[in-house]
Amino acid sequence: MNAQWWVAVLGDTLIWARLTVLDDGIAEVFDSDGGTLRYDDETAARMALLDAEFRAFDGIDADDAADLGFDLDEIEPPRGDDDEHLLPYMVQKLPPRH
């Protein structure tokens, strides 16, 4: 099972989603509302995230981050022991821009 972080920017807010592909190929997306959406495969989950204007966090470089309104060095995906602990960090206000 591997997890990938995805991020969307809405105004001055980052919204996170975690894409996890299970051993059987089913993909799950844990979203900022605390729900887990299930998809038949990783491709379907990625398409849904892209349709919702999310971007794979590991594919963002410093220029992309600047275009989205944040400094890549100041942002990292949420951390928590489990989904319940992650949930409060799935929506984050961006620090003020200098």
Q: Helix proportion of residues, in percent?
A: 10-25%
In total, the number of strands is 6
Q: SSE string, helix = H, strand = E?
A: EEEEHEHHE
Structural class: alpha+beta
- Anisotropy-based shape: globular
Helical element count?
3
Largest sheet: 6 strands, antiparallel
Q: What's the structural domain tally?
A: 1
Low-confidence stretches: none
N→C terminal distance: 39 Å
Share in β-strands: 25-35%
Radius of gyration: 13 Å
What value does the average pLDDT take?
93
Report on this structure:
- It is a single chain.
- By secondary structure, this protein is α+β, with helices and mostly antiparallel strands.
- It is 21% helix and 32% strand.
- The chain has three helices and six strands.
- Strands 1, 2, 3, 4, 5 and 6 form a six-stranded antiparallel beta sheet that branches.
Give the SSE layout:
Layout: E1 2-10, E2 13-21, E3 27-30, E4 36-39, H1 42-51, E5 55-56, H2 62-68, H3 83-86, E6 91-93
Keywords:
3 helices; 21% helix; alpha+beta; 98 residues; six-stranded antiparallel β-sheet
Concise account of the structure shown:
The protein is α+β, with helices and mostly antiparallel strands.
